[in-house]
Design a protein that fits this description.
By secondary structure, this protein is α/β, with parallel strands linked by helices. The protein has five helices and seven strands, in the order βββαααβαβαββ. The chain has a three-stranded parallel β-sheet. Pfam families: ABC_tran.
């Protein structure tokens, strides 16, 4: 519902004082929301660099600023060595890192991560956690992290809620 993929059944989804559920397309800035869905949605023929450039353009980041933002996130996640690699040639962990990078590109104010560390190796998970911690400390933001790993939630989050069969348990 927050990402707009599912219709809101009750209440509102407010994103920067705009009801995202009731908004016309374009009313909510594309740069306001970063999303890393559970499934990796990548174009198989595009390279890592091309994915980052396309997402920067969609988010409305100026070309000069995009180059800096892409370099920053690529360095933080160690993606620069894969810049010329097509998505279809990435390992599952590398594809996941790219999807995570796309979700934080441009410093969105709201970020949604659904199992972002699945398939990542330990080093990739550490890099991802460091990026999350840095992003969340630097500005006023909101993030929702869905994970099966309690230790990941505790390491990353200020507040943790546990859902069991759709019911809030803790």
């Amino acid at each position: 519902m927050i990402s707009g993929d599912i219709a809101v059944t009750a209440g509102e989804v407010l994103l920067k004082d705009c009801n995202a559920a009731a908004s016309s397309p374009g009313q909510v800035s594309p740069g306001s929301l970063g999303c890393c869905p559970q499934q990796d949605h990548l174009w198989p023929e595009l390279t890592v660099q091309q994915h980052l450039e396309v997402y920067a353009a969609i988010r409305g980041i100026r070309r000069e600023d995009a180059a800096v933002a892409i370099s920053r996130i690529a360095n933080a996640l160690d993606l620069q060595k894969h810049f010329k690699t097509q998505a279809r040639r990435l390992s599952a962990g590398q594809a996941r890192e790219l999807c995570f990078a796309l979700s934080v590109l441009g410093d969105p104010v709201v970020m949604l991560w659904d199992e972002p560390s699945v398939s990542m190796d330990v080093k990739g998970q550490r890099r991802m956690r460091k990026v999350i911690q840095t992003a969340m400390k630097s500005k006023e933001r909101a993030a929702v992290l869905v994970t099966q790993y309690p230790e990941e939630a505790i390491a990353i989050c200020d507040r943790v809620a546990i859902l069991v069969a759709g019911q809030l348990r803790w």
